[in-house]
């Protein structure tokens, strides 16, 4: 029964695409692509994007989008680094930054819910604001950190095997999947995305649902920025540029409809792995960075095209 369901699902196509990427890049790189070391590299690079993917997946299911995660991550990485260099205890510094992440999400939600701004415009403004603030609070310079515990969060490994960022990403993915698939709130997310009016008649407060999702998305972006700063041993205002672009590409590629109401976190996770594997393969082949940027744009076009075809098939 499960096998038949898989054959009819979009996930089969995604898994085939992933298999093709593995085979092609393994051949082109002389079997250096599908190795333990490189798979680990892909997993680490996927972890930061993965946290943002969770937030974007939820928002896209309700028919919204957030363009600010890259800027929020950069701002958070700089801020936590500044706090640590000024002697603030690590746990307190992280809690402060995560709280600010929640407040940024609340600001986005208020702009969308109360001022009725389009999500694209509201979060585009937030993207500009917090990228600018990231530069302002550090004077445009990287803030280096020497706190060993903080650095281990970004570079350490559980039992010397599983990188902490990957472990954190997996834990949050597991929690988010359970919430989306097994809880009343998860059902509310799909109902709001599928038909907001019907959800309202069913007693669901759509604005409250969206507010929670925007807050969670920004908090996850802030957490990603913290982990990124730990990996780089510094908070950098230029970090995480295009993070939201990669996250949206992965989510749409994974089968989440831009129109809302359709999609799964499992599909988004496969989309993330496909995208990061594709990017990693290009780097291993020493493709110039500007051509990698072009390729990512083409990948987004492909993802949107697949979304269009899926919507036509559903109708």
UniProtKB/TrEMBL annotation:
Keywords: Cell membrane, Membrane, Transmembrane, Transmembrane helix. It is a multi-pass membrane protein. GO terms for molecular function: transmembrane transporter activity. It is found in: Cell membrane. It comes from the Bacteria. It holds the Pfam family BPD_transp_2. InterPro entries: ABC_transp_permease. The chain crosses the membrane at residues 12-30, 42-60, 67-84, 90-112, 124-146, 158-180, 213-230, 250-274. GO terms for cellular component: plasma membrane. This is ABC transporter permease. It comes from Candidatus Limivivens merdigallinarum. The lineage of its organism: Bacteria, Bacillati, Bacillota, Clostridia, Lachnospirales.
